[in-house]
Amino acid sequence: MNENGMKLLFPKEGRVYDYTLHDGGFTDPTEDGEPANPYWFNWMDNLDDYEVDPEWQYADIEVPTLDNVRSAAILGYKITNYNHVICVGPTGTGKTVTISSKLSRGLHKKFICEFLVFSARTSANQTQDVIDSKLERRRRGVFGPPPTKRQVFFIDDLNMPALEVYGAQPPIELLRQFMDFSGWYDRTNIGEFKMLIDVGMVAAMGPPGGGRNPVTMRLMRHFHYVSFTEMEYNSKVIFFYYLRGRDIKRVAEHAALLPLIPAVDSIGRNDDGDEVVVSNYI
Ligand SMILES: Nc1ncnc2c1ncn2[C@@H]1O[C@H](COP(=O)(O)OP(=O)(O)O)[C@@H](O)[C@H]1O
Ligand SMILES: [Mg+2]
């Protein structure tokens, strides 16, 4: 390739999923404000240094790892483009943490976010009441957030609601009704249809099992999917270092730090199946 004067599109190290495109000043800022050539850079570059204050609660810590930085960015693009998004992945992959921090801190102020958590006992009426209570009347029969804003509802554990006699999940059928027909009927004023505008949904769910049910495809077809995978080995290393208050800055340096992990608690395996040391701190 070199002989023919061709260059690799992506940097040599890692996989294509590790990189994102800097669009050369079109939307991403450049150093001098002048347009530049687009280039690929690692998701973890250009991040502010993250430091864990020993005073913080564990639950407040959100360590930036390749997976959640990337998922949060994709989530942001989708929401800004008015798509409905669903994040799927096994429990403990950081869906709740990543989405709620992106929604509460990482979006343009045009987006107003509201969190709902579904449980086995959530009913369709409750869901409708909560959503209705957050929206105001725009004009006759039409409801929405204040003008110029967009309301985003984050529904955690979407597939938790119990199945009714016929095998459907009423809260989910209600959401499907909203997504198919942009609204629902008023329960007090029988016969009046309430149209909901400027409303977006972000949902999270784990695989069926343990109280979670398979979700109907009639609902799923409305969503863009973002997958959350089990943490990569490198992410775990970053994680333990941060949680122990170590000062690590760049992901590229982490590999070099691997042999330095001093407190040995157990032996694990990395992505290649080699035996390595993993500290179990949390
Ligand atoms: N990037 C992260 N930084 C810090 N803690 C994390 C991170 N990702 C996940 N966790 C922790 O892992 C646990 C599970 O995360 P959670 O978001 O509840 O997963 P999910 O919603 O996918 O089941 C939580 O206690 C959370 O604090
Ligand atoms: Mg969760």
UniProtKB/TrEMBL annotation:
Coiled coil: none annotated. SUPFAM superfamilies: P-loop containing nucleoside triphosphate hydrolases. Transmembrane segments: none annotated. This is Jg26941 protein. It comes from Pararge aegeria aegeria. One of its GO terms (cellular component) is dynein complex. GO terms for molecular function: dynein intermediate chain binding; dynein light intermediate chain binding. It comes from the Eukaryota. GO terms for biological process: microtubule-based movement. It holds the Pfam family AAA_7.
